[in-house]
Design a protein that fits this description.
This protein has about 400 residues and is mainly α. The protein contains 16 helices and 2 strands. A hairpin with a 2-residue loop joins strand 1 and strand 2.
């Protein structure tokens, strides 16, 4: 770890925070149908597309109709891509004569401010941003420290213990750690270093961020709904603490919303832990790992975590191009995507149909530092501890073994 490395991470966080307000305001105007600086250019194109599609932009669409339309669109896209992959050997524009892809392979930040402006309460958006930023900064610090510390036993051999394995010199440890955290905090999936070569604790952080649902600043293409699920659980816990029906943004949070939130939250461990447990019991699946012991387990755990989170990054030591991993990985992606979206949409529809109630003296404020702390605590306890036993069998025990000079 160096001062220069911390400065680079600090500059990234400053720029990230500085962009919240201008981008948030722009997106809020877009979502509310108000003119923007790009309206003279894009508005004519938008109205033309509406006419061609037969869409009445002034008519609201209920949550159920929206969910059905989204699922049908995804199904059509899935079938189109599947057909393209299976028939590519017979299609034109195939100069290298690529054969058909096997069936098992074919199967498979500013937004917080936008939210605050759209609900007319910017402090609510900043509260969510503060919770996300706290998780991001903690994750960055943990990963950078772990990679900077490296393997302490290398020092006895006269070797710099900092872990540069699997990293490009031009990026170094600081930017490699930053990218690994950012790409798994927000479902990006791109990498600039080999996560499989990270230290045990350095590799634990990206896994955990995906297991939490990639809720920091909203997942790519999915917005804030992952964080909202934890907000629902948090206000429910707060309601139990103050002895009142929980509320959020003037809406009563009742049994239906809490049940839907927990259903969505539990979908991730269902796929991640379920498929991982099955894989380690199948000799052919275990044979696909490049390393023995806890690191091999971590490779399998990372694979199903990334697939369920629809992330795309991997511990590259795992040979995933097998019938088992292609098939179960496809199901993991389906569960992680659709089993979460439908309950989230049901919550949105339920809250939209409710009347707002005025805040009273007993209303728990959801824009305060206390709520931010409670939200982070619920995320780490409800979300994180669900996966702690699996993490203990993988990266945690691997770190303990590393300290005892045992490597895998």
């Amino acid at each position: 770890m160096t001062v220069n490395g911390w400065l680079q991470i600090g500059v990234y966080l400053i720029v990230l925070t500085a962009l919240v307000v201008p981008l948030g305001r722009y997106m809020a105007r877009v979502f509310e149908g108000k003119p923007t600086v790009l309206s003279p250019v894009l508005r004519p194109l938008e109205t033309t597309l509406y006419r061609l599609s037969g869409v009445d932009e002034a008519r609201e669409q209920g949550w159920l109709a929206y969910t059905v339309a989204m699922l049908l669109f995804n199904a059509a896209g899935f079938l189109a891509v599947y057909a393209l992959l299976r028939l590519q050997a017979f299609l034109p524009l195939n100069p290298t004569d690529q054969s058909a892809v096997p069936a098992d392979l074919s199967f498979n930040t500013a937004v917080t401010h936008t939210f605050g402006r759209m609900v007319g309460k910017p402090r609510q958006g900043w509260a969510l941003y503060a919770a996300m930023l706290a998780i991001l900064v903690g994750s960055l610090a943990a990963t950078y420290w772990a990679e900077g510390a490296g393997n302490v036993h290398f020092a006895a051999l006269g070797i710099d213990p900092a872990n540069m394995e699997g990293k490009e010199v031009r990026f170094g440890i600081a930017n490699s750690s930053l990218w690994a955290v950012a790409t798994t905090a927000a479902s990006n999936g791109s990498v600039n270093a080999m996560h499989d070569s990270f230290t045990p604790l350095g590799g634990l952080v990206p896994v955990l961020l995906m297991q939490l649902g990639e809720i920091v600043f909203g997942g790519v293409g999915s917005g804030l709904y992952g964080m909202f699920l934890f907000v629902i659980v948090t206000v429910f816990v707060a309601g139990l603490m103050v002895g009142r029906t929980p509320e959020y943004l003037g809406k009563k949070i009742e049994a239906k919303e809490v049940k839907m939130a927990m259903l969505a939250v539990l979908c991730l461990p269902l796929a991640i832990l379920g498929f991982t447990a099955a894989a380690v019991l199948i000799p052919s699946a275990v044979a696909s790992t490049a390393n023995a012991g806890p690191h091999g387990f971590s490779e399998i755990l990372y694979a199903y975590t990334s697939q369920t989170a629809n992330n795309g990054s991997a511990f590259a030591g795992l040979t995933g191009n097998t019938l088992w991993y292609n098939t179960t990985g496809g199901f993991a992606m389906l569960i992680g995507r659709y089993f979460v979206i439908v309950p989230a949409m049901a919550i949105a529809g339920s809250l939209a149909a409710k009347k707002s109630v005025a805040a009273s003296a007993g209303t728990f404020p959801t824009d305060s530092g206390l709520f931010v702390g409670l939200l982070v605590g619920v995320i780490l306890i409800v979300g994180g501890l669900t996966f702690f036993p699996a993490l203990a069998l993988g990266p945690i025990v691997e770190h303990i073994a590393m300290m005892k000079q045992a490597m895998f």
